[in-house]
Amino acid sequence: MVSQGYSINQVLSHKQTAILAPQLQQGVRVLQLTSIELQNEINVALSDNPFLEKTEMDSGFEIVADPMPGKNESARPHQKPDSANIGLIHGYAAKPPGIKMPASGSTSGSRPESSHGSANDFLLEMPTEPTLHVILRQQANATPLSDKQHHVLEILIDSVNDKGYLRVTVDEAMQLAMPEYVVTRREVAKVIGVLQDFEPVGVGARNSSECLLLQLREKPENTRGLELARQIVSQYLLLMARKEIGKIAHELRCREVDVQHACALIRQLDPFPGMQHAPLREELIAPDLIVKKIRDSWVVRLNPNLTPAISIHHESEDLLKLAKGHDGYQKLKQTLQDAKLLLSNIEKRYQTILRVATLIIERQARSLEQGEAELKPLTQKEIAELLEIHVSTVSRAVNGKYILTPAGVVELRSFFCSSISQSGGEDISSRAIQAQIKELIEQEPGEKPLSDNRITRILKQRGIHVARRTVMKYREQLGIPASPQRKLKGTGSSGQLY
Question: Would you say residue 13 lies in a domain?
Fold first, then answer.
């Protein structure tokens, strides 16, 4: 008989763990702050750190932002900030003696005009009520997740549009993750599931069908017509939009009255759950950047009216020397280092935002003059490669950041758009196609709206070859109902989907 027993073996395994240094963590956090959040951060620092003080600004001095980095920039070791050169916030430096700082990043290289106007010249309407992204982050903070999962969830929340739809693919989310984290497709998909459990119900969906299915998931199982409603949402939304009840009943082999009950249930749902948190009241904030055309070139500069200026107190080093040898010296020394690090990270924040924005405007200059239809295909990955930085850095630099253009204030990330390959010609951006679809629908005869097939044929005549389902997807992203609804309700491009 073979004896059976237990043995204890020692097994060694290697596991990669991502740990970010506190200095890097602060730099990452400062970069992703909005202008209002940064202002609050500075106000707290001024009250908590005795080595920081407000400074008078000299409007002739700005941050230097070379749009193209050195070849081995990413490999350089972290350098401690030099107190002799620290004195900068919101794009301007407190004037160090004998130091001249050139103008901020420009597509032309020429010095821009010195006059920036008052803060009231650069105002943007923003909501005072909690926005969708604030509400999602509150739920994220209350959800027990690993550091990696919280990181991925933050990327996904940044990629949710105002209607509540997730506008990033699994692969794109993987690319946006910090290199310190090794993120798999399965992990991203799992976190998408976490996001889709948040309020409002339906948030985080990739398309209208998924959005409605998420809402149907919350209905009690004994709800009349629930299973039929799921089938209609999954396969027959277009027929429902056309009110072809009989055809749906024939396809599903059920009674028309049952289809009508199911459709009535679907119409109770919200196709744009994010709009529940559209702004009800407005407050004024300033955009982070300003772009102006000077001598036939577009010049990007930081908004000098954004936040109060701070610097290291000019007697800080002397005060530290006096405290040497006394109790509390080490704590005081650390407080000074914290002040220097904060200013260094804020300066890096503005340099990064300015470099990214300058390159974006350089690529999309034509759209500033001729409108959204002239947007070129441009991705965050492309900007990251040109600047030799990680794509997650670009994502943080553009999310929640606004730029004042001749056409008004727009979010910086709105200049990014995917491409559609064209046979025999250069690629066209998806946003340019959307702009053309919107223009066609706005000009259509009210009594005979253009169908998706008709729009597809018109675009083909213009040299744009896209499938009908692509036209339908872009139309839905624009919030434009199908042609039967536009004819029935006379709503045009401003109508609702259901």
Answer: no
Are 446 and 385 in a shared domain? no
Domain range enclosing 175: 132-205
Residues 303 and 404 in one domain: yes
Which candidate, 309, 290, 293, places its Cα nearest to that of 301?
A: 290
Q: Can you say whether the dihedral through the CA atoms of 190, 153, 277, 242 is positive or negative?
A: negative
Euclidean distance between CA atoms 409 and 122, whole angstroms = 8
Domain membership flag for residue 175: yes
Q: Is the pTM of this model over 0.85?
A: no
Indicate whether 31 and 107 sit together in one domain.
yes
> Each residue's pLDDT tens digit in the chain (498 positions)?
444 444 445 444 444 444 456 667 778 888 888 887 888 888 888 888 888 888 755 444 344 444 444 433 433 333 433 333 333 333 333 333 232 223 333 333 333 343 344 434 444 444 456 778 889 988 998 999 998 999 899 889 988 888 899 988 898 888 888 777 889 999 999 999 999 999 999 999 998 899 999 999 999 999 999 999 999 999 998 889 888 999 999 999 999 999 999 999 999 999 999 988 765 444 455 688 889 888 888 889 888 777 667 888 877 777 777 777 677 788 888 888 888 899 889 889 989 999 999 999 998 888 888 777 777 888 888 899 999 998 888 988 998 888 888 888 888 888 887 666 555 555 666 777 888 888 888 888 877 888 888 888 888 887 777 788 888 888 877 778 888 777 755 544 443 333
Domain membership flag for residue 8: no
Burial 276-285, CB ≥16 within 10 A → b, else e: ebeeeeeeeb
